[in-house]
Write a structure and sequence with these properties.
Radius of gyration: 32 Å
Shape: elongated
Helix content: under 10%
Strand order of the largest sheet: 1-2-5-12-13
Order of helices and strands: EEEEEEHEEHEEEEE
Number of helices: 2
Largest sheet: 5 strands, antiparallel
Strand content: 35-45%
Distance between the termini: 34 Å
Length: 196
Amino acid sequence: MHGIAEERYMARRFIHRNRQDAQVPTNNFGFHLMSAMISGPIAIPKIYNGRNKTFFMWAFQRHHEKASENVNTVVPSPAMLARDFSFGGIGQPVFDPASLTRAADGTYSRTQFPGNRIPVSRVDPVYTKFMSLNPFTPESNRFNQAFNSAVGPRDNLSADTVYRSYRTSFDTKIDHSFSDRHKMFGPVVVFPAPVI
């Protein structure tokens, strides 16, 4: 008979912060893996002795994992929601689509909205109704890493991911040797590893 048992555990204090995070994660984290395996010849007293002929292997594994990581993402800023796309003076030009004209030489031109601000008179009532429902999470970066670019804010919302995994698996295998040249093996029962 042969067997092995193993346990792996990782605590939050062993986790280094991501390079873009200002501090070590303080959210939930856990990793625990337990496994065991036993194998040997099949022997049924007074009925069958499978020494050097028939062998079994049984294995078990239990996996617990939970993780919550900081993710910096993007949501519309209050200025954007107020139709202001100047982004501190570095925003890309926003042109009035109704001002498109064609010159005699075949080129086209448009007029930029003053200050990159879209007038309220140009806003569709459906958009106004939609925005009244407050569909966006307000910006909030817990590490003060938000900044503006030419196309808008970046990393202006810190959010936590939530990951949970609890899995169990069993494996059983039988090997039989009819002779040195004829052998057979196969799984007897294999339970899938459900994710809960």
